Amino acid sequence: MESVVRRFGTPLYIYSARHIDQRLKLFHRAFGPIAHLVCYAVKANSTLAILDLLARRGAGFDVVSGGELERVLSVDRAAATRIVFSGVGKTAPEMDLALRSGILLFNVESEGELELLAERAAKLRTRARIALRVNPDVFAETHPYISTGMREHKFGIDIRRARAVYRKAGKYLEPSGVSVHIGSQIRSADPFGAAARRVARLIVELRKDGHAIRLMDVGGGLGVEYHPDRAFDAEEKVCQYAAALIPIVESLGSLRLLLEPGRFLVAQAGALLSRVLYVKKNGEKTFVIVDSAMNDLLRPALYQAYHEIVPVAPAQSSRKAVADVVGPVCETGDFFARDRTLPVLKPGDLVAILDTGAYGMSLASNYNSRPRPAEVLVEGKRVRLIRRRETIDEMLALERV
Ligand SMILES: *Cc1c(COP(=O)(O)O)cnc(C)c1O
Questions:
Q1: DSSP summary character for residue 159
Q2: Which of 116, 236, 337, 363 has its CA 20 to 30 A from that of 354?
Q3: Three-state DSSP class for 178?
Q4: Are 116 and 130 in contact (CB under 8 A)?
């Protein structure tokens, strides 16, 4: 690890290709009995090399902006037919791009969007395959910022109104599926099953209404375990998830299941390597100040998220002490761990902040005018730079005085 850091510097995101590959295979194995497509949620980690890795293995993609769509198309034009487009605020130019590329499915989230999409499709003389993203009013135990499947949330269309909205589709829109996404970092399979059952009932009604519903998109949200002392078996999780969904899909006859995992595929494939700059004591408290910050990894500040932090050789102290691990940004929220028992660290030591492959780099910013970190991908014995470190000149390039 020292040699990698000597080559590429810190802060540095490092990802394992093999881990991502294995996670994708878990899905294919568990859902093998039914027709399915894994549409990786690009927002979890949108770095091109990660998208390329998944595209080569036949994955589809769930995008939520024109930018994400362009990212996927830039690594694989032919992946267009495996792209679903989600999000509550699609603009006309984004719709036009998606229509021209011939994506698999638009997940429509409001009646206003339905009208605009019909208008754009008419203008481009094409038809858009659509699913309404319905709001199933299912409670999923997770952080309130990433719970999305209840009536009071901004996402989707009330499932009780969906049938009427599908009737308004018109000749430029082709109702092909029903979508749902109840939130993120959900650990139990039960809410996924509950949401899918409600969607299944709707599909039966829609088919009676004459719509050829061939796709059921159950969204993403399957959680991982960030605490090292809590048991987590990824294979078992995917199998439970599949067991909750497969019977529902099978009961509906000819139907292809779309899955949109983000975090589950990439979170535990990544770590953020950081160097200890200073260790300081304020009264009772010890602060370990590292060279990465909330601009590099926002999850602790945004969701009070837990990330395991481990020293990387040569830091070999067997003594332990309680400390806060914090970044240099001028915000009290700029922390990675609070009152954490860690091996005693000293300036110059290297630490790895674990399980940061999802919602790490994709949420990175330039706050405090800090250039965004570099990223490397480990493929077998090879370590490859997949994004070089941003420079200060690049950061300033868009501005004029
Ligand atoms: C964020 C999101 C996902 C992925 O969620 P994960 O928790 O990362 O699996 C999938 N679908 C939609 C519509 C999303 O907004």
A1: T
A2: 236
A3: strand
A4: no
Nearby residues of 217 by Cβ (< 8 Å), 6 or more positions away: 39, 84, 105, 107, 131, 133, 177, 178, 179, 180, 181, 257, 258, 260
- Distance between CA atoms of 226 and 305, rounded to whole angstroms? 8
For 275, phi and psi rounded to 5 degrees?
A: -100, 140
In the reported structure, the alpha carbon of residue 70 is separated from the centroid of ligand 1 by a whole-number distance in angstroms of 18
Active site residue 330: yes
Question: Which among 24, 132, 181, 362 is the best mutation to test ligand 1's pocket, defined by most ligand atoms within 8 Å of the CB?
Answer: 181
Q: Would you say the CB of residue 263 lies under 6 angstroms from ligand 1?
A: yes
**Domains of the chain, first to last:** 2-12+268-385 (2.40.37.10), 17-266 (3.20.20.10)
Q: Please choose, from the candidates 110, 118, 69, the residue with its C-alpha nearest in 3D space to the C-alpha of residue 92.
A: 118
Instruction: Give the C-alpha separation, 91 to 102, whole Å.
Output: 17
Q: Is the CB of 23 under 6 A from ligand 1?
A: no
User: 183 CB less than 6 Å from ligand 1?
Assistant: no
10-residue mean pLDDT profile of the chain (401 residues): values are 94 98 98 98 98 98 98 98 97 98 97 97 98 90 73 84 96 98 94 97 98 98 95 96 98 97 98 98 96 98 96 78 96 94 95 98 98 98 97 97 96
pLDDT per residue as tens digits for the range 95-117: 999 999 999 999 999 999 999 99
Residue with the two structure tokens 């987590």: 232
From 65, 86, 241, 303, give the residue whose CB has the most ligand 1 atoms within 8 Å, as the site to mutate.
86
Per-residue pLDDT of 31-79, as tens digits, reads: 999 999 999 999 999 999 999 999 999 999 999 999 999 999 999 999 9
